């Protein structure tokens, strides 16, 4: 909000560090300090119009403000006898409240700080008296909570522990240089820890705001890996701790031939390091850009491997949420490797949902854009989008203006070229259904429903998951160190890693509060291999255990 706009506000601000709960665009909500629900009383309730955070339309919601600061919204007025489903969950603890008469009369804004990001939620009512009633009630609750917190603090501290006071001191200790010397021993187990000193660095594969990806060789084995080195301070400042830790957990615990996997993860005083096996066949985005479209047979092969991998994730309660061509890599033989697990959501089995707005705009499912709860069906929408790109050579919905793009995704029916086969049209139409409950794969059978579609009649799913089907295209790499499918802007750079300013062997350190339980150095996976493929979808039973296939992502959402 500009300073000029701020001058026009009738500001009724509570001058404390503020914190507002709710998902910010492309981010995970910060963890909030819960208030004891048993002692909370209703302060005010009634109908409000709330403007959507992403699609700027006004929606009628019934809101209940309680004495513990919670402000919950419902699509219908809650019945005291039943547990109504919440559409919105906010807190007014430590917020600012501002009255404004645009874009609609009798509007008010609740502004707060989520980690380091200022976010706003906009509401409007029908008259000034109603607005004043809500503003006064919110101000009263927020002031009371602030006074209680200040009273309890001795010496005085900021009103919420969540407000990164710990990270300020921590950031002062973070060096701008990467430590590369020394090894360390776990003080509890006595085992030698992996450090940057264990690797010889060969080429830069990618760079971004959060760090870089480097091709390296492990000195003890001479094996090639790609090491992703991320800056802790940037991860904390940009509120990406939860996404980074989720990616680490998923990499540690999954085991599927078409997913990347992890060799080691460890941390230095100022960096997080993921060591993954190197995959050098290039992004599907690169190959499709060169060829414009793929034949349906080639699309079928890639789609089958993608569906196999996503079905595996779903069967273990993980939704992926960021399917796009840039995250689909090819190994040296031409098999799919799904990369970048930073937006994965765990513990989402069939029937369970989440509501965080995240992903890549062109690939977002309608239910995400509508601020609705969503589940595993979002990944099948993404599958439909990437398959459409492969077969048709363009996105099903596109506009440079994101507001127009989102409207197209929500309202426009998908159109197909004349030369597409009936089975392909049927499959894509099923995957790109707006209603997730009616979408192909949206039911309890998940991937099996898609695998049974006539488009995949020629696929033996057991042979596929065992890599017994020859890929339709083999990348033209001449050696393991061939980086022709990586950007020459990066691969031509020299790799310079300098010691940390800190003293001592800090190649690896003990776990820190933000990144506890990060380190990992065992290829064994805690999740079994695919269990969702059965004889209904292949010529042979698929009960055997598959070998562990490791690979590497050269890009992730944080690196772009």
Structure description:
- The chain has 560 residues and is of the alpha+beta class.
- Among the domains are: 3-163, Pleckstrin-homology domain (PH domain)/Phosphotyrosine-binding domain (PTB) (PH-domain like, Roll); 284-482, Transferase(Phosphotransferase) domain 1 (Transferase(Phosphotransferase), domain 1).
- It is built from 14 helices and 15 strands.
- The chain has an 8-stranded antiparallel beta sheet. It has a 5-stranded antiparallel beta sheet with strand order 9-10-11-13-12.
- α7 (296-315) runs antiparallel to α9.
- It is globular, with a radius of gyration of 26 Å.
- The two termini are 27 Å apart.
CATH topology of the domain at 284-482: Transferase(Phosphotransferase), domain 1
What is the level 1 CATH name of the domain at 284-482?
Mainly Alpha
Number of helices: 14
Rg is 26 Å
| Arithmetic mean of pLDDT | 75
Strand order of the largest sheet: 1-6-7-8-2-3-4-5
End-to-end C-alpha gap: 27 Å
List its traits.
560 residues, alpha+beta, Transferase(Phosphotransferase), domain 1, five-stranded antiparallel beta sheet, 15 strands, 25% helix, disordered N terminus, AGC-kinase_C, protein serine/threonine kinase activity, ATP binding
